[in-house]
Design brief:
Blueprint (H helix, E strand, L loop, with lengths): L1 H4 L12 E7 L2 E7 L5 H8 L18 E4 L2 E4 L12 E3 L12 H8 L9 H14 L5 H7 L10 H16 L2
Parallel strand pairs: 1-5
Antiparallel strand pairs: 1-2, 3-4, 3-5
Helix pairs in contact: 3-6
Bound molecules: FE2/S2 (inorganic) cluster (2 copies).
The site of one FE2/S2 (inorganic) cluster has 12 residues, from loops.
């Protein structure tokens, strides 16, 4: 009988949650997550850090970029369990002491966002790119930021904002 075949939620086996310890924006946290949960979903849904955006959820748009152990990563393609013990910075953690990050200020000054949906990923990606130390020219910056898509036309302003902060850094 059909009713015999229906498995009630109570009789389902307990799903195998894993414990993951992360330091996110300098705060230590411990999560219980299913092994297939992405870091993006863990940040947004378990930690309520919704600044990191879910665009494509397939590694194609860069909206979900965060900084993990000093490197930019796509959090939609990263399982939370893979990052046990890591230090993560999201857009909520880039300002310091109540002061916006220089890139956040430059994005505002250059009108570098229209819908703003790609902005958190663009800023985290640019911070990671600066840390990589590879982008020397505007053309290289464009190439190394090409994984972060802006679909509404702010791209030139985004690159202008990044170049301005890069120039400030080279004078420090
Ligand atoms: S949401 Fe991760 S790359 Fe698009
Ligand atoms: S500002 Fe709209 S997608 Fe980037």
């Amino acid at each position: 009988m059909l009713t015999d075949q229906i498995i009630s939620a109570k009789s389902m086996p307990t799903l195998p949650h894993k414990t993951v310890s992360l330091t996110v924006n300098e705060k230590h946290c411990t999560l219980e997550v299913l092994p297939w949960v992405s870091l993006l979903d863990a940040l947004r849904e378990d930690l309520d850090l919704t600044g990191t955006k879910k665009g494509c959820d397939h590694g194609q748009c860069g909206a979900c970029t965060v900084i993990c152990d000093g490197k930019r990563i796509l959090s939609c393609l990263t399982l939370a369990v893979m990052k046990n013990g890591s230090e993560i910075t999201t857009i909520e953690g880039v300002a310091t002491g109540g002061e916006l990050h220089p890139l956040q200020k430059a994005f505002i000054e250059h009108d570098a966002f229209q819908c703003g949906y790609c902005t958190p990923g663009q800023i985290c990606s640019a911070i990671g790119m600066f840390q990589e130390g590879k982008a020397l020219t505007r053309a290289e910056v464009k190439e190394l930021m090409s994984g972060n898509l802006c679909r509404c036309g702010a791209n030139t302003n985004i690159i202008d904002a990044i170049m301005e902060v890069k120039a400030q850094m080279s004078h420090e």
